[in-house]
Amino acid sequence: MAKVPTRQLGKTGPQVSAIGCGAIVFSAGSRTTEVEEKRFKLYDRAIELGYTFFDSNDVYGDSEDSLGTYFEKYLHQREKVSKIILTENPDHSDAKLSNLQVFLGIKFALVMSPELKTYTVRGDAQYVHEACEKSLKRLGLSSVDLYYAHCIDKTVPIEETVGAMKELINAGKVKYLGLSNCSSDTLRRAHVVHPIGCVEIEYSPFSLNIECSVATF
């Protein structure tokens, strides 16, 4: 079986699978929410194949609750992944290998309406902290590997948003920061506050904004 390629997160981060496991397809992105045990089998299979970068969001239905239950019930999966990669990647140092486990990234910033038809974007410092606390509670974890803004709140300076995210790192609740759907100018300003290890940009035949000299994000 071919190994899933890995990439380094930022300049100093761990190696993560180049293709991740997006939890949205198991909840908000599906026509119906998958039965819990069926989802657990899909998580197991993703890890077995080497797709160890898990991505979720606080608006992906019950995604965070599901992952929290999964990791509580199958905590050994993190150790299992580490051992697999120790065997399959002998060229990496032990320090890097110890970081190669299920790498969990979660997003915030979208606030859905009660009927789940519209949303607003929030990136103010208070909301950043509140959203993180709620996500950690749903996940049953004290910290996550990657925390990134799903959208940029244009009513709040990016420096405030990333400043609050940096405070989460200082508090030991987050290890790395990321941004989604941001312009290059926003990214540069954010990076001044704290290094950004991950940028998520939609790119497909139906979304070509990234090719424009002036992004419309």
Automatic annotation (TrEMBL):
<keyword id="KW-0560">Oxidoreductase</keyword>
<dbReference type="Pfam" id="PF00248">
    <property type="entry name" value="Aldo_ket_red"/>
</dbReference>
<dbReference type="InterPro" id="IPR050791">
    <property type="entry name" value="Aldo-Keto_reductase"/>
</dbReference>
<feature type="domain" description="NADP-dependent oxidoreductase">
    <location>
        <begin position="19"/>
        <end position="206"/>
    </location>
</feature>
<dbReference type="InterPro" id="IPR023210">
    <property type="entry name" value="NADP_OxRdtase_dom"/>
</dbReference>
<protein>
    <recommendedName>
        <fullName>NADP-dependent oxidoreductase domain-containing protein</fullName>
    </recommendedName>
</protein>
<dbReference type="InterPro" id="IPR036812">
    <property type="entry name" value="NAD(P)_OxRdtase_dom_sf"/>
</dbReference>
<dbReference type="GO" id="GO:0016491">
    <property type="term" value="F:oxidoreductase activity"/>
</dbReference>
<dbReference type="GO" id="GO:0005737">
    <property type="term" value="C:cytoplasm"/>
</dbReference>
